[in-house]
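Researcher: Sequence of Argininosuccinate synthase follows. Predict its structure.
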Amino acid sequence: MGRARRVVLAYSGGVDTSVCIPYLRHAWGVEEVIAFAADLGQGDELEPIRRKALAIGASQSIVADLVEPFIRDYGFPAIRANALYEGRYPLSTALARPLIARRLVEIAREVDADAVAHGCTGKGNDQVRFDMAIGALAPDLKVLTPAREWGMSREQTIAYGERFGVPSPVSRQSPYSIDLNLLGRSIEAGPLEDPMAEPPEAVFAMVCNPAEAPDSPSTVEIGFEQGNPVSIDTERLDPVSIIRRANDLAGRHGFGRIDMIENRVVGIKSREIYETPGLLLLIRAHQELEAICLTADVARYKRGIESSWADLVYQGLWFGPLKQALDGFLDTTQRNVNGTVRLRLHKGHCTVLGRCSDDSLYDPVMATYGAEDQFDHRAAEGFIYVWGMPNRLWSQQQARHT
Ligand code: ARG
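Model: Prediction complete. Tokens:
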């Protein structure tokens, strides 16, 4: 086909990306396929995955540890943005894609590749995210998408792979499609495709069943600086350790399961189960701290920014100009989001117990009902006279009509 000579493939070790290796070489005549797998804290052994790519025909196999930048540059901005797609999904899968794409493009430059490739199918969001990110970072680079074009069913894909030494999936009985990284787990397909069917307990791995969570609650204190979580229970931790600790705590108490019908970029509705314990805990705490640190108008305006930010991350626009512009707003607003939030985790619930901040706008002498009250009660009269003016005029006018 003469499409490309040397290609860097985003490689996960799964069936589709594995079959991409022989397919690119034998069906599309690519001379050299270089596999690249990203470590995003998914907990998989990456050395076997690296070797697997070589065994099935990759000329080179690269593993990159991206856990730290993933949490610091993708996870933490999402916390600062309280980013929840359609009000619920904290974007654990979506956030990983621009980072993988960035490294993919860098490797392509380093090895002087003339194309990159990924194994996404044509129905999902991830193909959109990869293609959009690569297009923004390297508009000249060709993107090859075998799985979008080969038209094979899953069985045919497995059979094709077997001809070239791609081992068939060990757990062929698992009907689920799972995406996993340190920020969360996404599970779809199989019995979950019936939106009325309750998810079997077996789909969960990060968050325990709330009914089986410990009877005694845990209290946790999260410290923030400029909107970034920096400590748990007064212990200062690096970003990766914060997420690990938060995942562990919330997961143990059954907090962080989501079952939702979401609207994909390609227009269809899909049913996905998420487990994002740490991320949800940290967003909950962050929202609470903002409530005391941001003025009412900034907080109100920020809600719109947050939902635009979540939408564009979901839709693959990470490297676009709107994202940059919204980040400017977020950076400014987060400067005085500093302080501590105390929460309780218990049997699937997360309850805020308290919050404090040196930048707090909460003024006790204004808020109190006690003797120290300094609020000028009489000033309210003039305020209400002016504030109510438009409605009084309107009511008078209505009365004349009837
Ligand atoms: N729906 C989620 C998203 O678009 C997750 C996609 C991957 N899910 C999966 N189970 N493989 O971000």
